[in-house]
Amino acid sequence: MPRTTVKVTPRDGGWEVRRGSSPNRPVYATKREAIRAARAIMKGIELGMILVYAPNGRIYSREHYGDPPIHRSRLRSSLGTAAIDAAIDAVMREQLGGD
Question: Which domain holds residue 59?
Answer without folding.
Answer: 4-65
